Amino acid sequence: MLFFLCRWPLDAPLRVSLPPEASGPERELLERALRAWEGAVRGLRFAVVEGPAPVKLRFREGGREGARTAADCEVTPPFAGHGPLRARLVSAQILLRRAERDAWGRPIQLAAAELLGSTTHELGHALGLQGHSPHRKSVMAREVSAVRRIGEQLLEDKPKPLLEPAMASLYSLPSGTVLERRRLAPGATAAVDAIAQRAGAPGGTRAAIRVGDRAAAVRWGPGPELVYYLRDPQQILEGDLEFSDALDLPQVRDQRR
Fold first, then answer.
1. Strands 178-181 and 2-4
2. What is the CATH number of the domain that holds 146?
3. Using CA atoms, how far apart are residues 208 and 92, in angstroms rounded to an integer?
4. Phi, psi torsion values for 103, nearest 5 degrees
5. What is the mean pLDDT of each successive set of 10 residues along the chain, which is 257 residues long?
6. Could you tell me if 126 and 214 lie in one domain?
7. Structural domain contains residue 208
8. Strand 14-17 with 55-59, pairing
9. Which among 170, 197, 228 is the end of a domain?
């Protein structure tokens, strides 16, 4: 089992698509979040474009959930050896809230600091930080109040530079840098190896990996038979959860229903 870092290549500006329906003030806030991360990561540059882009920001149409981000890391063989894996982020979609609901269910427009802080936070996930920081002064903190406070700071006439040591560390290392190679019990990967082999039969050689706080997905191709899931990735990394207990296969999911 490999634990590795994955980030965007910095050899060209990272193209970003903003919500088409965003107002002028909203676009200004979204672009301010982009500029904040450019100042925090050496060599990072964004290019706002119309149409398709690897990083896509959109507003949520409804629902109770807050903002959320999905980022996909593409990994290609070989997986053996001692150097970095061939891994890079290839796509990210950010869904933002424009409003929240009051006690009577009526929409209340988010304040500028809330939208700016939330956008900056979600961009951090899109850039490769999938977890949350325990430090309340970090824009990657889980607490809404901490994120809003960062938004307030970025709205100042002369805002302080955004500081995120974890992001700086991520982008100081090659994408695909292996943190740990953990030996598993004999036969522990038989089921997931079979998924990779099924994908390889018609020529599939790339895996798309998506990691969040509570779950991870490894997809070898389209269709439910070419993906498997792992719950609580952080607990696996810390050694509190075994691979076999975290593994969730598509056919197992169907049998539980």
1. antiparallel
2. 3.40.390.10
3. 12
4. -65, -20
5. 95 97 96 97 96 95 76 91 91 89 61 94 95 88 91 93 94 95 93 91 85 93 92 93 93 45
6. no
7. yes
8. parallel
9. 170
Same domain, 28 and 99: yes
Burial class (CB in 10 A: 0-12, 13-18, 19+), 153: middle
Whether residues 96 and 201 fall in one domain = no
Supply 61's token pair.
């149409």
Residue type, 94: I
What CA–CA distance (Å, rounded) separates 74 from 210? 9
My answer on whether 42 and 131 are in the same domain is yes
Q: Which residue range(s) make up the domain with 30?
A: 2-70+91-170
pLDDT, tens only, 156-200: 999 999 999 999 999 999 999 999 999 999 999 999 999 999 988
220 domain residue, yes or no: yes
Q: Count of domains in the chain?
A: 2
Nearest alpha-carbon partner for 228 in 218, 243, 242: 218
Which residues touch 22 (CB under 8 Å, ≥6 apart)? 30, 59
Distance in angstroms (rounded) separating the CA atoms of residues 179 and 67: 29
- Measured CA to CA, the distance from residue 113 to residue 110 in angstroms comes to 8
Pair 9, 43: CB distance under 8 Å: no
Q: How many angstroms separate the CA atoms of 16 and 122, rounded? A: 13
16 and 133 in a single domain? The answer is yes
Q: Which of 173, 178, 147, 169 is nearest to 33 (CA)?
A: 147
Residues 127 and 198 reside in one and the same domain: no
DSSP string, 214-243: SEEEEESSSSGGGEEEEE-HHHHHHTSS-H
pLDDT of residue 100: 67
